[in-house]
Design brief:
By secondary structure, this protein is an alpha+beta fold. Helices cover 23% and strands 30% of the residues. The strands form 4 sheets. The chain has a 7-stranded antiparallel β-sheet. It has a 6-stranded antiparallel beta barrel with strand order 16-17-18-21-20-19. A 3-stranded mixed β-sheet has the order 1-2-3. The radius of gyration is 22 Å and the shape is globular.
């Protein structure tokens, strides 16, 4: 039995390398021909989750009396306020208050003025709640004359607009030179979603226009699905409809490399200061922190607004990959600057807005087993309530292996879910031997 388990482990590794997609069920997150090794960054559930209290207080007190909120290193909410009464109310609610000069209305007005100025590709701006400033960045492609012009616009707004030059280029993270997955290039898929009739992959809109066909191999033989309902620029999201109509078992699990996964239990809006994790087809699992919200990025292809700004790294091909924290879906990778050697800035499309605009629900775990769906949050609802972990279903090993190795079954999405199905086969063998330690080491999908 021990030898059988080792053979299954080797088979999982080979299929993950050939198929390029380890779904942990049917969740596409590492869409490459060979999955990179996961960095040694620890189990991605070490930071206390944000409470949402700061966001609620900002909403209740209003834009003229507050200037955003964030969580400190201990996960405690902090709210920027402009008057003593607001500070007292924040403290009574159990949060920390920080007095600032400029309100949220001031920050948003500054951003609107920047947006109305002539567009300069290679620039971005975001609301930095912690410093009570609007931070404008220009990459290496911005000319001295364009930067000087933007600086004059910023000076006309006020001293709370901070200008910074950054190395590298602000680019979307698709790698068109290596069209491994799509007819439009290579990207990573994010989260599985459903409209109640069909299942889809939520990914980045810039990965390809409507009608783009996606494959699980670099020869274009194993079709996964077709892009539809994309939005880019302006927003950066799209759906890939599974050819088979269903994501399959384990659709609530995000693969993070090394045969491991994270079970997705809900969806929420990100908070400044929140510790987050991102998984992508090029650079694997990486960790970072949310640094700003409502970011605007002027990519060469067009302007995208309402993004989440982070200090987590990303590289070409990571586009569309999932950003999450404590099992909660937060965003899909849009673009940024830098790389995972030197570091950089990465922007994410909020999942909450994408779900609302697309009219779909996130496929999440249910406490009773199987998968449920987290609804698209409405303006009044905020984020859907998280579900709970669902057990991995036992599956007959011989049946699965025969189906995966039968070339007649390389149909819609078959190779896409190959890695995860074999992972479930391995789960059957390991459980039969009651080797829980090996199970957690190789196939843990319940870290949270």
């Amino acid at each position: 039995m021990r030898h059988a388990r080792r053979r299954v482990v080797r088979r999982v590794t080979r299929l993950a390398a050939v198929g390029g997609l380890l779904l942990g069920g049917a969740m596409v997150t590492n869409a490459v021909a060979s999955e990179p090794a996961a960095p040694s960054i620890g189990v991605p559930f070490t930071a206390p989750p944000p409470t949402g209290k700061g966001t609620d207080l900002v909403s209740r007190l209003g834009n003229s009396r507050t200037a955003g909120s964030w969580v400190d290193s201990a996960g405690r909410p902090v709210v920027a306020v402009t008057d003593g009464k607001a500070a007292a109310e924040v403290k009574r609610a159990g949060a920390q208050a920080r007095m600032v000069e400029h309100s949220m209305s001031d920050l948003k007005s500054a951003a609107a003025t920047l947006r109305s100025a002539p567009r300069v590709a290679g620039t971005s701006w975001a609301l930095d709640y912690k410093s009570n400033q609007v931070v404008v960045r220009g990459d290496s492609t911005v000319s001295a004359s364009d930067w000087s012009r933007m600086t004059k616009v910023a000076e006309g707004i006020g001293s709370f607009v901070r200008m910074e030059r950054t190395e590298g280029k602000f680019t979307t993270r698709i790698n068109g030179a290596q069209p491994i997955l799509s007819t439009a290039g290579r990207c990573s898929a994010g989260f599985n979603v459903t409209d109640g009739t069909s299942d889809f992959i939520l990914t980045a809109g810039h990965c390809g226009p409507d009608g783009s066909v996606w494959f699980a191999d670099n020869r274009g033989r194993n079709q996964v699905g077709t892009s539809l309902k994309g939005s880019f620029p302006g927003d950066d999201y799209s759906l890939v409809k599974y050819d088979g109509g269903r994501a399959g078992k384990g659709a609530d699990v995000v693969a993070v490399g090394d045969g491991k996964g994270v079970r997705i239990t809900g969806v929420a809006d990100a908070e400044v200061g929140q510790k987050i994790f991102r998984s992508g087809s090029t650079s694997g699992l990486r960790e970072g922190e949310v640094t700003a919200l409502n970011a605007t990025v002027n990519y060469p292809e067009g302007t995208v607004t309402g993004l989440i700004e982070t200090n987590v790294c990303a590289e070409p091909g990571d586009s569309g990959g999932p950003m999450f924290a404590d099992g909660v879906a937060l965003g899909v990778t849009s673009g940024g600057s830098g790389d995972c050697t030197a570091g950089g800035t990465t922007f994410f499309q909020p999942v909450t807005k994408a779900l609302t605009e697309l009219g779909v629900k996130l496929i999440v775990a249910e406490s009773a087993g199987g998968t449920g769906a987290a609804p698209a949050p409405s303006a009044s609802q905020g984020a859907a309530s998280p579900g709970s972990s669902a057990p991995v279903t036992d599956t007959d090993a011989s049946t699965l292996l025969s189906r995966l190795t039968d070339p007649r079954n390389v149909g819609p999405g078959m190779l896409v879910i190959a890695g995860s199905l074999v992972a479930l086969v391995a789960t059957r063998w390991i459980r039969a031997e009651q080797d829980r330690k090996a199970y957690r080491q190789y196939y843990s999908a319940t870290w949270g």
